[in-house]
Structures are given as structure tokens and as C-alpha cells.
Amino acid sequence: MTERAPSPLLLIHPSRGLIDEKFSVIVQHLPPFIEITLHALIHSDDGDLWEAFGHYVSDATGLVNVDSNASLGGTYDGLEPMGLLWSMRPVPGSRLGLRLRKKEVNTPVVVTISVYRGHMGQGFNEQTALASVVAERWYMAPGVRRLDITEAGVTGTLFLPSGPGPFPALLDLWGGGGGLVEYRSALLASHGFASLALEYMTPRTSGDSTSHVGNEYFEAAFTLLKQHPQVCGDRIAIVGLSFGASVALGMAVYSTVIQPRCLVCVSCSHVQPVKGSLSDVFADISKYVHNINTRYDEENRVIWRDLLLPIPTDPTKKVDMGKLPCPVLLIVGEDDQNWPATESAEDMKQMMEKAGNSHLLTTLSYPGTGHLIEPPYSPHVRVSNFMMTQTRQKILVLWGGDTAPHSHAQEDSWKKTITFLEEHLYRTTSVTSQSQL
Amino acid sequence: MSTTVHMLWGVKDIRVLNSSSTLSSTMATISPLLSVKPTRGLVDEKIQIIVRNVPPRFPVTLHSLFHSEDKDYWEAFGHYTSDNRGTVTGTAHASVGGTYEGTEPMGLLWSMHPAPGSRTGLRLRKMNVLTPMVVHISVYSGHVTEGFSKQSPLATVDIERWYLAPGVRRIDIRDEEVKGTLFIPPGPGPFPGVLDLWGGGGGLVEYRSALLASHGFVSMALEYISTEKNRASNLHIKYFEKAFRIVQEHPLVMKDSVALFGLSLGTSITLHMAAYSKAVSPRCCVCVSGSHVQPINSPFKDVSEKFQENRHKIRFDEEGGVIWKDIMLPIPTDPGLKVDMGRIKCPVILIVGEDDQNLAAVESAEDLTQMMRAAGNEHLLTTFRYPGAGHLIEPPYTPHVRASKFMVHQTGEKVTMLWGGYPKPHASAQEDSWEKILRFLQQHLYPSQDSVPKAKL
Question: Rounded distance, CA B216 to CA B203, Å?
């Protein structure tokens, strides 16, 4: 009986990493100059399969290393060490409109990385791989603590870094999709920030199925953080995406209770009725959403970016950015089809220049990038299902972005977000420079 | 841990006592930024520790703490001074004192020792490989040498150190005679195989096999000296041949690519099998801290028998630690008392600690090399000798112990065995030899391109 050829040696390092950590993928003991496909597979919490693949050719020593070899095709190409993760998409035959989001942060995302013979584009589950390994990708570092928060009328999850603290803190606000989304906070806690993921768009947080929460709710959440024994009360920031970022801007300018040290606003707009509460904001937006001016693309997916355009000149219709008291990092996807992030950013800049506080503004603008700018190395989706909170209607929303530039934007903006937060929340100021540690 | 609760209360009290206007100026409790990467690594993976945001030129202590399965505390620490930017980097800055000195990025792991007040004679061995070792890495203000549990660190990060990569499968092997544990890498295989033999301490020790499987080898940890009273030890060559065949015949193993890996008595068994077994033929052999000196016509002597017969040759160090290295000295000239190294037909890598106090590893290495030279098969031998390294040369970054409690099974005596070695050179030996062993196994267990011209993947 002829001896089966050995399995090539496939090694991933680290085999257990944080979601935002890079990994190296090296295949050895291949024959020289042969075509192989590297394939990544995730079986999501929702039961869907996501995959990515890249085409490579082994070198003279039978080696493929994603750090130094370019992919010649597949779901990503070029020298892209992390392409196997960020270029993932649902396998052929999957349900439409999927988005990959980890709900259970106590467990890792398990990725199976395999090597196949030849340059394959499909039918991976019908072939035997040459080699296969498993990598774990975690949102939570060891020692990070997760606490359910249900006090002071606030619903959310608090993640605390390991160690005695106290820690600077973050109020973490997601967008109009609602629910309690924990993974970004878990990851931020893994970087040393106490982070409160706040649930605010779900009917139960207001106790009323038709109205949304008022400003007092966010103030209560902020105060809860401020008073927490393991939080440095004067070093709290707000990180917001989409509608959450708009809320953050409004609160920072108009609330006397919420005094963030800085803001990170991703894919947002300052356009909102400023005299009212959140409910009023929503009522306004609902008016637009159901009107005939909603655009659809050729595949009947909703494009909402026009709803807030043109950017109003009426000051009662947008946050007075000239009154923003703290530094703000604005992250903008130039292909954002959901919110007019670019136009808003431009208008915000003008308002701040006129008012003389533009030194507080840092804008990161990324071409080819859509609305959902999230922590790096998870798959980009240009479109996904969206449930309208009030009507419970399910539609397909166009978020925008092309996979490669969007993924690079996620990697770059996340790094800069962490640096920005460390800069404003960890660095000692002149006030505290004489303090003894 | 009760000290954690105490620290939380302490922080709360400070906040209550200070008025809010002075709170920010006394907000000296802001934590520096401590990062350790990877947070979850394999035991043989390096870590990168960076402390940021302490004042410039500030003295700090990096500290590690581990609570073992046996409930002992192990710790290590290094004294540093931050640079002008208030940063300390493990890979670039030198420790000026503590349990290790110099630029030693892994010092917080390999220089660990039992915390003051611990029981004596401890050795750190992970018996349950399905869970990680959780190590608490902390940074303290100033150069601290003791009382770590009574002080609040500036920051702490927990890291996990695993012997098992994700996807590696663990299988109990309990056939009528053979007792062991098989570890299989993830994937369709086939894989090269290893039979993993520890020494005279006995029992079923899994961690090295788990780690080998994490590197792509099917590896079986074999128990051959039982630590249970009602189970006999099995030192007959047939037992090892049977175990070897279990690995070799596994459907996911390449039959012609199975190695023997031995430490101490395991090495004696390895060399004996490589030279004399008619039933099995290892593709290559890894021989750590071992000897070819043994009577060849009888089953391997249990170390306790050797102990009995050679009591007069046993020495003691100043602390009563038992030194066994002289038991086999002088190296016999009688061929009946040592493995005929000229009969070995496969590559051998020999790892020798020059300060081995348990076994005459250096003298044995010299003798066996001469035998191979005389027989014309010396080209098969690669030897690595490590000055200052002791007997227990294990996978890297776990603590070295110069002596530890050892149970001599037959007599039930518990002695303190002197293994030898000094922390830094022994740690370097473990790091270097492990890398060389893995490369050796890969080189010999994966067929080279010219030897399988017809193999199609």
C-alpha cells in the first residue's frame, strides 16, 4: 500500500487571539511551486456558515506565509495577512441579508483554517483539505469581568478590565438597530477601559412599547458609570456609532449631567431636532423613513442617506457644534449609504471653525467605506437585514462600502480610536502631573 | 482572593473621603497601561509585555503570580526603570534585580519560584492539559521584593498559557496492557507520530505530548511506571513496542514517520529500542538528559532498584539533596552494560545539561559519541550541550527547580532529589533545545522532497 503523503504543516499564531489581533498563517512542507487555496470557515451563533479564501503558490521551499505571499485571487487578493477574516461572506445558498455579530462574548469565535490543493472557488465542503487547524478569536481578554446592569432604571452590560482599577470608562452606544450589543465593550475592556454597553432602543428599556427613552436615561447611565467604585469619575468618554453617535453629540453639547472627557463618533450626523427628547428625534426620523423620498437601489434595498439632506441651515435642526466642550474623533465612511456622514462631517467642521473650537475636531475619512465601521477583521457587509424598531418591519438596508477599503478602514480607525481614547483618558494632564502613583 | 476585596474597599474609601474638587488632583489612582500579548498563548510562545503611562524614569516592578493545581503560589518579579516616555518594554529594557536580571522578555515566567512561606521541594507541572495556566501579570510602583499580596498593584493583566492548541483532540488509551494518552492535531492528517517517554518519576504526564500535538505531531504520553499501589510498572521492551505500534497504526499517523522522545529513563528506553528492537523502528530519536548505560539483557531497571543497589555511590549536597549522577560512573567498558550505539540506524538528537546532578549525562554523551565514531554511524548524532543546565530539560518558559521532592516507588521513600542547573542557563537551554527538537522532528519526520518524487498531494 502506498504511503499517503504527509499533511502539510499549517500553523496559526496566535491560535487564541483577541478579535483585533493580527495572526500569522504559515503552511510548510508543501511541494514547491504548487497552487493551494487557504480557506477560513466560521459557523456563526445564528447557525450560518461564513467563508473566505485566497489563492497562493508555494515557494521553492514549499512554504506559504500570508505575511509575505500575496493572494492571487479569491475573496481577497494582494498582500493581505488578515484577508482570510475580513473578506468572509455567507457561503453560497445562505439566507439573504446576514450580518456576523457575536452575541455571546464569553466564548470565542471559532475559525477553521484549511489548506486545499489547487485554486478552488467553491465546493470546499466536498473536498478533503490537505490540512486544517482551529483558531479562536476572542472579544474578551482573560480576567475581564462582565456584569449585568439593571439598576437606576438603566439596562446594559458593564465590562471591567482585570486588575484593581480604578479605570477610565466608556459609555458605548450602538445605532438604530437596537438591542444590547456587547462585543465592542468587551473588546474595549480588554484594552483597559471600563465599558458600559447600553441598551436604549428596545421598547422594554422605556417600559412602553411605543415611546423611546428620554435624555434622562442616558444621564442615568452616565451617572452610574461616574459613581462606580472602579471607575475614574472624571475620565469618561462616549463611543457611539450611527444614531448612538448622534445621541452622544447632543448630550455632550446640551446635557449638564453628561460631561464626557472626549467623544468617538462613528458614521454619524449632528442633524437632529435639538429642543426635544430622543422620542422627538425618532418621531422626526420616522416621518422621513416612511415618506416617498426614501430611495431604493436596483435591488430594492433602502438607501437612507438622503433623509437628513440637505444639511439644514436652521440651527434648531442640528446640534450646535460650536458649543462642543470636548475633543471629538469623527470617523466617516465616504461610501456611507445609510447616513450622510461626509456631508455632516463637513458641516460640523464649518460650524466649529466659525465658533473657534475646531481644534477639538479630528476627522478620519475613508474612501470606499460604508456605514458599519466596526472593530477590525470581522466581515464587511454592504447590505443586511434591518428590523424597524417601531413597526417591526424587516427590510434590506444598504450600508455601503467595498470590502477591501472598508476592512482597511476598520483596522486603521480602530487603532486610532484606541490611541485617541488612551490619549484623553489615560495620559496625565498638567493638573495631575505632580500626583504620586 | 480576599486581598482583592480589600483593595476594592480601599479605593472606595479614598473617593468618599476626598471632596469632589480635589478629587482630580489626587486622582493619582489612575492606572498605567499594561499590555501583555498574546493574552492566550501556548506555553512555548513568547509574550510581549509593555507598560506605558507611568512617569518618566520611574521605578516599577513587574510581577507574575500563578496559583498551581496543587494550590501553591509561584511568583517572579523584575525591577525596571521607565524610560523618558514613561514606558517599560520587556523585550528592550533590562531588569536590574528580582528573580531575573537583564533583558529577559520571558523572565517573569521561567524565573518563577514558590512564594515565601510555601512548602519545600515543589516542582511545577500541569497535570490537566485541558485548562490553561492563568498567570496574573502586574506592575507595582517602586522596586518591591516582597509582600506583593499586601500592596495594590498599579495594573494587572491576566494571561492564559496553554499546552493544548484549539482543535487538538485528547484520547485516553486504555487497552489491556498499555496505559497512555494520545493527542491528535486538528485536520485530516496524516501526521507524523511520537511516542513520548518521561522518566523514573512515573505516572502519566501529558503536557509535553499535548504541546507536540499543538505543533502537528500525533503524540502519545505513555505511563510505564505506575504511581498507584495496585498497578504494576511495566518495564519490559514488549510494552514499549506495543505502545509504539499503537501510535504507528493509528489511521491518522504516517507509519514510517514515528519518533521516540525520551527524557532521563525514557532516553535509556529510547536508545535500547532503537538499537535492539526487532518489532519497531523509530524514524528518529530525541534523547534528553539520558544515558546509554544500562544492562542490556534484562528489563530496564526501575530507578528505585538502582537506588537500592548503589546506595554507596549516592552523594548529598549541603542541603541534603540527593545526587545520583555517580551511580553509573565510571562509564563501564563492558559492552554488556551499555547500549551498543553502533547498532543505531536512525538520526538521534541528544540534549545534555552540563550541570545534571541526577545522571552522568555529560560522561554518557562523550562515551556514546565515541562508540558511534568507532562504529562509523556518528553522522546520525547531533548533540547539544548546555552549560549550567540541569537534568529536567523541559518545554520552555516554565520554572526551573534545582531540587524537588521525589518518591522512590519501591521503598516508598521521599527524598529531595538534586536535579542541578541554575535558573538562567537552564531556562535558555529549555528555550533553545525545544526549538532544535521541533526542527529536528520536522526535518526527519516529514519526507524531504527528493525522497518522495512520486508523492502526489
Answer: 25
Sheet-wide strand order for A64-65: A9-13, A24-28, A64-65
The 3-state secondary structure of chain B reads CHHHHHHHHHHHHHHHHCCHHHHCCCCCCCCCEEEEECCEEECCCCCEEEEECCCCCCEEEEEEEEECCCCCEEEEEEEEECCCCCCEECCCCCECCECCCECCCCHHHHCCEECCCCCCCCCCCCCCCCCCEEEEEEEEECCCCCCHHHCCCCEEEEEEEECCCCCCEEEEEECCCCEEEEEECCCCCCEEEEEEECCCCCCCCCHHHHHHHHCCCEEEEEECCCCCCCCCCCCCHHHHHHHHHHHHCCCCEEEEEEEEEEECHHHHHHHHHHHHCCCCCCCCEEEECCCCECCCCCCCCCHHHHHHHCHHHCEECCCCCEECHHHHCCCCCCHHHECCHHHCCCCEEEEEECCCCCCCHHHHHHHHHHHHHHHCCHHHEEEEEECCCCCCCCCCCCCCCCEEEEEECCCCEEEEEECCCCHHHHHHHHHHHHHHHHHHHHHHHCCCHHHCCCCCC
Average pLDDT, chain A: 90
Q: What is the pLDDT of residues B95-126, one digit of tens each?
A: 999 999 999 999 999 999 999 999 999 999 99
Reported pTM: 0.90
For residue B49, which of B101, B100, B87 has the smallest C-alpha distance? B87
Tell me the average pLDDT of chain B: 88
A426–B30: do the CB atoms touch at under 8 Å? yes
Check residue B408 and give its pLDDT: 78
pLDDT digits (tens, 9 = 90+) for A49-91: 999 999 999 999 999 999 999 999 999 999 999 999 999 999 9
A5 neighbourhood in chain B, CB within 8 Å: 447, 452, 455-457
Q: Which of A20, A172, A335, A336 is catalytic?
A: A336
Contacts of B451 in chain A (CB under 8 A): none
Does the beta carbon of B166 lie under 8 angstroms from any beta carbon of chain A?
yes
Q: Encode pLDDT of A238-261 as tens digits.
A: 999 999 999 999 999 999 999 999
Tell me whether residues A8 and B31 touch, CB distance under 8 A. no
Are A138 and B40 a contacting pair at CB < 8 A? yes
**Of A1, A11, A15, A138, which to mutate for an interface test with B (greatest number of B Cβ within 10 Å)?**
A15
Active site residue A371: yes
Quick check: is A44 catalytic?
no
CA–CA dist A154, A158 (Å, integer): 11
What value of ipTM does the predicted structure carry? 0.90
- Which is more confidently placed, A194 or A273? A194
